[in-house]
Amino acid sequence: MLRQRLLLGPVLILLIVLGSWLDDAIDRTALPAWAAELLQRPTWPPGTIVFMVVSLLAVGGGLELSRIYREKKIAVSRRVVITLALSGLSIIAFLPKSLDGTTAAAIMNSAVTLVLIGSLAFYSRHKQVEGMVTAAGGALFAFVYLGMMFGFLVLIRREESAWVVLWVLVSTKASDIGAYFVGRSIGRHKMIPWLSPGKTWEGFFGGVIASAGVAALGAWLLSRSGAAEIPPMAGVIFGIVFGVVGPVGDLVMSLVKRDAGIKDAGSSLPGFGGVLDVIDSVLLAAPAAYWLLRLV
After folding, report:
1. Please, are residues 203 and 187 in contact by the beta-carbon 8 Å criterion?
2. Which among 96, 114, 141, 167 would be 20 to 30 A from 228, CA to CA?
């Protein structure tokens, strides 16, 4: 497993860096005349590549989540899971920036309400109520977890450069890497053995330190390059937060997998498991990053 991670990890990092560069560059690329007239802007919208990549990951995560639902005999089809995940993501991504806070909150609340009520109606359409509430809950989970929570990365990109999104991702995954190696080396005290037997307190604190260090370095690089103005000390605070909420996001997915009686959400990424196993920490770190960036 370690060998597979060491081989695949750098490839994934390279792809993320390349995607960030492309997303940043495309902002300055002129649109064809018909597209410019349609979108009422001369260049591509900010975050076009980020939205596409996040959408692909949401689809991959949706496929794995639907598999988990099948294991639990939750009657939410693959098509419904993916549709709801992309719907939640799209609502976040395409919400006009000109809206006031009250209207934006009302739209988001209405969307959640519509998914819940619509799911209850859909899964009771055959006049059978058994499993209806469970299915509606599964549908709402897909909408919020893979759609709205993941959408915070797109929100960050709408207000910051693509390099800030990269910084959030790398800082969060640094926690995973630090926790893995420190836990393997000196981990003795189990965190939550009934839920995630491999996690130790030593690994947890090693992950927090790694995340804080990488985030501080990244903040310094962002400031030097002019991509963002994040003081290194603020970067340390960001990193500590990522190092704490990232493992919590991992534990949330562990709860879901444990309930379904499976170890990994999938096998599409050798050494890492599936898409959900890779993005679980980011799904919780992204909302935290968005609100912290609003404070800087």
Report:
1. yes
2. 96
3-40: pLDDT as tens digits: 666 556 667 777 888 888 888 888 778 777 787 777 77
pLDDT digits (tens, 9 = 90+) for 43-101: 778 888 999 999 999 999 999 999 999 988 888 889 999 999 999 999 988 888 788 88
pTM to 2 decimal places: 0.90
Of the candidates 161, 256, 265, 248, which has an alpha carbon nearest to the alpha carbon of residue 211? 248
Is the separation of the CB atoms in 185 and 125 below 8 Å? no
Q: Are 162 and 47 in contact (CB under 8 A)?
A: yes
Distance CA 86, CA 6 (A): 31
Q: Say if CB 138 and CB 77 are below 8 A apart.
A: no
- What is each CA distance from 45 to 42, 95, 133, 270, in whole angstroms? 9, 13, 39, 34
Task: Give the 3-state DSSP-derived string for 8-74, with helices as H, strands as E and coil as C.
Answer: HHHHHHHHHHHHHHHHHHHCCCECCHHHHHHHCCCECCCCHHHHHHHHHHHHHHHHHHHHHHHHCCC
pLDDT at 2 over 70: no
What interhelical angle do 162-186 and 2-26 show, nearest 10? 170
